[in-house]
Fold:
Amino acid sequence: MHPTLRPIPFHEVELQDRFWNERLETVLRRTIPSQHRQLEQHGYFETLDVTKPAPPLSIPRNEHGFTTQIFWDSDFGKWIEAASYALRHERDSTIEAQVDSLVERLQAAQAADGYLNLWYQGREPDQRWTNLRDNHELYNAGHLLEGAIAYHQATGKRTLLDVMERYVDHIRTTFGPEATQQPGYPGHQEIELALIKLYDHTGDRRHLDLAVYFINQRGAQPHYFDEEATARGENPDDFHQQTHEYSQSHLPVRDQTKAVGHSVRAMYMYASMADLAILTDDDSLRQACETLWEDVTRTRMYVTGGFGSSEANEGFTEDYDLPNESAYAETCASVAMVFWANRMANMTLDRKYADIMELALFNGALAGLSQDGEHYFYDNKLSSDGEDRRWAWHPCPCCTMNVSRLVASIGHYFYAASDDALAVHLYGSSATTVALAGTSVHVKQTTDYPWGDRIELEVEPEQAAEFTLHLRLPAWCDAPAVTLNGEAVPLEGSVTNGYLALTRTWHPGDRLTLHLPMSPKRVYAHPSVKADLGRVALKRGPFVYCLEAADNPGVDIHGVSLPPTTGIQEMRSDTPVAGAIVLKAHGLQPDIASWGGELYATSTPSTKEVALTAVPYYLWANREPGPMTVWIREDGPRPGASTD
Structure:
């Protein structure tokens, strides 16, 4: 195995890319300011003064006695994190003042012993740390901690970081293996990722050790969540989810072989397991990650890079259970997959991880954010009757800040390096400078990717040096080609696990051209995915496409078919977004007018030819409402039918 690569931080990557700059500008100018307004309008800031009587609940308790206000702290944390990433791109006095005001109030709210949770301090001060299973104290702490780290990195201001380090000290005292401690761990995983970031930021090994403890303790017997339920006077058998698979605590993590339960919790946990496998050289965690990866991507993943098919548990059900109309595919789950896949790619330098990172990024995650930057999808259906609408806010707005913090830090996922190697995971016009083989190397990409298929790479070491450049050759590309200083590079024998390895002495002025042909492709689901039998999906490059009513007037989106012999053309279009590539084809639609008045007949209906336009899935629901489908019927005319 190659030495583990370290990601190049996003603030060291200059984005010059039209595609990502448009998304980034939208997040900076519209998304983050509008989220602050929404937090204010929905009463979040009223909870910050824990010395005052708590205001009435904005979100009533559900049938299980639960309200999503319990984890409002996490929304503060994610907003601070996204805002901090924005400030790394461009200092904005208004956003910075808003963060400072929030930090000041969080600092004032912190208890003398370091504890900080607005729900418990304001409403149930005698109940803290009594329900880790359901009430998100550690999850909230994790997101606040990530926000604190990001804000310190962006501004140098450490007030919130000091607050959160005091809180982490309190958590470390509270949980652990000693008789005076609670042997608990989070019901909703997340703090593990934050603690690993804190270790990376401070070098303090205690933070890494606490993350290791939470991962190792998970699923131990006797089961902590059952014991704390009993201590609360509840019967553990009355748990409304009925199984600890919901929180992936049914087994120790190294014994888990199936992706089960709540999909976002799972993905956060898998990402932290990958981090710990790298940082502690734990091969058992690496093997567990690889086993779980195969299960997720081979039996439980939507073609869009979406995860979790069921609303009931916001997560996984059975192998190949991937319904389209009722797909949950939470935006947060695709964002978390980007986190996990990036870590796996850096650990193994295997294309299969970066390919899924790209798939989830361009489809499952980006679909969650509107083009105007102020409307969202929580769940991402693959088929709609036209009733689905993006919303401006949600009783559980976790996805809003999750997708914005991903976009604001997108440069983090492009490049990774070791002492003598640089890997290019994602393509897009960008530049970075990295130390390799004892010299400073400037690398620049110029491309129209993801619409265009040519990438020009400039490799500029300060002085000649020998190192390896790894270029991902995506699995969706059948015939990649590379030239170096105008000479064709033979790929045979130089590609390992989907990455072209170019080891040579590099000189100032070296130029590479990478050609990744993006022909439209038909994609089929495993025969066990019953929802997609007899149907086809369309892909081009990193994008999955869909039929949307806005582009297909007069077409029955759900009744039309795309016969196997029909050709598919691509063309540039300024609809639904300038410069996009849309796909064109001729389909067949039942001719209802020729059917007659009978309900049933002994022959198939006549069909008529209709023009079809497919657009990238991430762009749907940005125009007038209407039906949409990713999976298109592929059957053609049957015997006994006529074609007009």
Q: What stands out?
A: Confidence is low (pLDDT under 50) at residues 637-644. The two ends are 60 Å apart (CA to CA). Residues 195 and 207 are 5 Å apart (CA to CA).
